[in-house]
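Task: encode each sequence below as structure tokens.

Item 1
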Amino acid sequence: MTDAQLETAGTVDGVAQAKEKGKSYARVLSSLLIDLTHASSNLENVNISWLDTKTLIELGERPEGLTEQQLRIMLNHKEAITFLRDHGTHLQLGKRDLFDIQSLVIKGLLADDSGVGALRSVVVRFHDSRYILPDNPHQLREIFEQFCDKANAITHECPVHTAVPRAVLLLGHQRP
């Protein structure tokens, strides 16, 4: 072997490029976490800028003007999205996994935690919305089962890690 060959023996071509792509991928995931946390929190009427969301997520600094409940919503959404990112390829879109995700989203927000991990048994109304949630327990169960069936059909069309966040966002509108 020549000196040049010995110099490169045991090395793998493209490591630098792979590391650079890894950094780019990490940046994309970080930005996605911020975007999804910001969007999902805004759906919950947490009025926060994208930049304040970024500061909260990356630096852990609480933006001015957030109530304790709004902060909890933001942090719960971040935790749920991080969970989906880290475990999405191993999740099924069945009742158990969806209830586990639900428990991350509503952790610390309910006066009574007995409803965590189950379909709701109380009527939910939004005073500032025209949207009326289903309130019949039988209808809720039926909608949830249909949702699980449809969500699992999505996973056959695209990878679970993209289907799960999409499904969870859709599920949020039914507030089971």
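Item 2
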Amino acid sequence: MNENQDGKSKGFYQDISRITVRGLSEIALDFNAFYKELSLRVHPALTNVAEKDLPEASDQLYAIIETTEQAANRIMDNLEAMQQEQNGIQTGLEALVAEAGLPSAAQAQAEAVLDQVKSSQDRVMKIFEEMSFQDLTGQRIKRIVTLVQAIEGTVQEMLVSLGDRFTREEPGTERKSEEEPLLKGPQKSGQGLDQSAIDDLLKSL
């Protein structure tokens, strides 16, 4: 009776072992296939980002800085020229208003134009003040460029790491046991658990 029960228990545990090993082996093979597929998809994508997208983004941002700086300089030059012209007009109008014997109507008109010139000069000064946005914008864009370059460096480091993992071969490494590949998880090409190893392992149970 005891021998019969022992035999049944042994058979039960053997069945459980076979089912467990088979399930683990299938998971290992599926994960190994997924790992290889991931390497084929992720590595080229990261390469494209590191070698094309991020450097292009940095170049575009630098181009924006350069273009806006050139435009701001042209605006400043025109404002300075306008300011000089307005100063000349103001000087002439002030001399005209101060001239003795000027008809009252002409003097009133000259004073009105002089007020308009002064108002225009105030607007020019405000534009000068508002042009400070260029410096702030340039500084912010440069910070973004620095961030993009930092990301580019990180991606390149990832590429080096992934490249080593996906391409490095380690021939001559022998398995210590038939069960070891299951414990190690996904392996490189030629090192992972193949179907013959699974069959041998199942037969040994």
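Check on item 2: The chain is about 85% helix and 0% strand. Residues 11-165+177-203 form one domain.
End of task.
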